[in-house]
Design brief:
- The complex is a heterodimer of chains A (124) and B (471).
- Chain A is mainly alpha-helical and 124 residues long.
- Chain A is 35% helix and 3% strand.
- Chain A has a domain at 3-72.
- A two-stranded antiparallel ribbon of chain A has the order 1-2.
- Chain B has one domain: Alpha-Beta Complex (Amidase signature (AS) enzymes).
- In chain B, strand 2, helix 3 (92-99) and strand 3 (103-108) form a beta-alpha-beta unit.
- The mean pLDDT of chain B is 94.
- With 471 residues, chain B is α/β, with parallel strands linked by helices.
- In chain B, helix 8 packs across helix 10 and helix 8 (291-306) packs across helix 11.
- Classes of the chains: A mainly alpha (124), B alpha/beta (471).
- Chains A and B meet through helix 1, helix 2, helix 3 and helix 4 of A and helix 7, helix 8, helix 9, helix 10 and helix 11 of B.
């Protein structure tokens, strides 16, 4: 990192992270509005028409980036689901004070007789 | 001064509360302040002081990021879905700081559910940078960082999933530290990306930061990822020397995307530390260039699962609609902000049938590869030195229409979350009057040595603890 190697690019151009995936963007099948709607349904999100369109655009832009990792050689590498390797820990079976029920239920939109009231799940 | 009885804990707390009341309008750091509660905590701290049971931080005020649960004190995550949520329990870090007599000033602003890098994604208000109030303090822990920089609080807590402590610390010219994953309990931190999240301190200098790290660290059986030897011990903080240390410079963090002013300060920092006897070696970790992509698969995937709990049954308001699924979807759709919904969508997509192997599994493999490369570097070097942010504080609104651009700002900080290793950001200098942070990274469980090195680096850098001009 000497001054001689300081052939920098200005911030807005984001040369090596941003540009490369967009060059390969065409190789990649963009997702349709129907697919966005399907994902929203899986995610339990009610979205407006304009939100669906916005997310279609955002998802497609990000998916362009996701192609970055499709070319990486990952032969023989185990996935890393945790930051630090862990092994299972057994907890002692000790009784601790539970949460205060009134404090818990105060946060619920509806409660009755010390219980949460959920939306009707089974129609009569 | 507290221990010498020159001032009382109540006077210190009151002075900070007054300052928050008069000055915070300019910075927008706090979402909730409960003065009687703060003063009661100060009186409790005074009792500890009077009884001679005080620790090093007893009576010191602290601001808390509003995604850390505080029993009886509103915790919103800067989201409308938790606007009136009052936790029925304390996060473990809150139990630790109150048992040591720190005094909570209030809850600070953040990007909704800690998703963002500008503090503009708060459902309530943006926070502002004390060095220039037309600019962002960074994010997501922007309120906590700005509160310390604006001298509204001497200490604060944030959380760091992809850089949310170190990046705003850099933009605000203060010290921000993400400990090794598992050294600070996550119990009571509202979960975003559980394999990446870590609570950590902000302070005006490395010594204060280290004392707070010691106070909040330790094993906790309520966090299943808590490490056994979690306590961070900072006794040897001042006994380090720069001379003879070996630092690595990953070239991927210096080429390309750095703003010129940041690059210049980095070069000056390397020159200064070289004069102090640090040996620098350029290394290459190509996976750094894939960090942002990997992060934006793993973090939203974990978030989409964690945020499933917001269903309008146990907390938050409930929106009415057709059928029970309609009620859940309406509640979530109407009360989550745009960025939160975007990340839930990304995560749901990445985990959905047919894409899991292509995206999520692959991202975890890239994560493994990147972490292994850093582990290798830590065997050969005492630390890895990088910028903490590729840019200085940007104008509010400047990047908010460009979610991709904002996401890229985390590329210096993401590797530490991926590998679980610790990182600290401290101020290295100024570019056009705006702070530029330098980041030091050390191996997993190398927190004590990292803090010691950061302390020595801070001594060597002339601008490390400069304050903004404020009333």
């Amino acid at each position: 990192m000497t001054a001689a190697t300081a052939e920098y690019f200005v911030f807005r151009e984001w040369p090596y992270i941003v540009r490369s995936p967009f060059l390969r963007y065409n190789l990649f099948m963009p997702i349709t509005l129907d697919e966005v709607q399907h994902v929203a349904k899986l995610a339990r999100l009610e979205l407006t028409e304009s939100e669906l369109l916005a997310f279609q655009q955002e998802l497609n832009a990000l998916l362009g980036h996701f192609q970055d990792i499709s070319d990486v050689d990952l032969e023989g590498i185990d996935p890393k689901p945790h930051a630090v390797s862990l092994r299972n820990v057994w907890a002692d079976d000790v009784i601790e004070l539970p949460l205060d029920r009134d404090m818990v239920l105060k946060n619920a939109p509806k409660s009755r007789a010390g219980l949460f009231v959920v939306p009707t799940i089974i129609e009569e | 001064m507290l221990r010498a009885k020159q001032v009382s804990a109540r006077e210190v707390a009151q002075a900070h509360l007054d300052r928050i009341r008069h000055e915070d309008e300019k910075y927008g750091c706090f979402l909730t302040v409960d003065e009687p509660r703060t003063l009661a905590e100060a009186d409790h701290a005074q009792e500890l002081l009077d009884r001679g049971e005080a620790g090093p931080l007893t009576g010191i005020p602290i601001a808390i990021k509003d995604n850390i649960s505080t029993k009886g004190l509103r915790t919103t995550c800067a989201s409308r879905i938790l606007e009136n949520y009052v936790p029925p329990f304390d996060a473990t870090v809150m139990q630790q700081i109150s048992s040591q007599g720190l005094v909570t000033l209030g809850k600070t602003n953040l990007d909704e559910f800690a998703m963002g890098t500008s503090c503009e994604n708060s459902a309530f208000k943006p926070s502002r940078n004390p060095w220039d109030t037309s600019r962002s303090p960074g994010g997501s822990s922007g309120g906590s960082a700005a509160a310390v920089a604006a001298e509204l609080a001497p200490l604060s807590l944030g959380s760091d999933t992809g850089g949310s402590i170190r990046m705003p610390a850099s933009l605000c010219g203060i010290v921000g530290y993400k400990p090794t994953y598992g050294r600070v309990s996550r119990y009571g931190l509202v979960a975003f990306g559980s394999s990446l999240d870590q609570i950590g301190p902000f302070a005006r200098n490395v010594e204060d930061c280290a004392l707070l790290a010691e106070a909040i660290s330790g094993h906790d059986h309520r966090d299943s990822t808590s490490l056994q030897d979690a306590k961070i011990k900072v006794g040897g903080l001042k006994s380090g020397r720069l001379n003879g240390l070996k630092f690595a410079l990953p070239k991927e963090m210096f080429e390309g995307a750095l703003e010129p002013g940041v690059r210049q300060i980095m070069e000056e920092t390397v020159a200064t530390l070289t004069r102090e006897g640090v040996q620098f070696t350029e290394i290459s970790i190509p996976e750094i260039g894939l960090g942002v992509t990997t992060y934006y698969i793993i973090a939203p995937a974990e978030a989409s699962s964690n945020l499933a709990r917001f269903d309008g049954v146990r907390y938050g308001p409930r929106e009415e609609s057709q059928g029970h699924i309609g009620v859940v979807a309406a509640t979530r759709g109407r009360l989550f902000g745009h960025e939160v919904k975007a990340r839930i969508m990304i995560g749901t997509y990445a985990l959905s049938a047919g894409y899991y192997d292509a995206f999520y599994l692959k991202a975890q493999k890239v994560r493994a590869k990147m972490a292994a490369k850093f582990e290798q570097a830590f065997q050969d070097f005492d630390a890895v030195l990088t910028p903490a942010s590729p840019v200085v504080a940007f104008k509010l609104g400047e990047l908010s229409d460009d979610p991709l651009q904002l996401k890229l700002l985390d590329f210096c900080t993401i590797p530490a979350n991926m590998g679980g290793f610790p990182g600290i950001s401290l101020n290295a200098g100024f570019s056009d009057g705006l702070p530029v942070g330098v980041q030091l990274l050390a191996p997993v469980m190398g927190d004590e040595k990292l803090l010691q090195m950061a302390y020595s680096v801070e001594r060597a850098l002339p601008d490390a603890i400069r304050r903004p001009n404020m009333p």
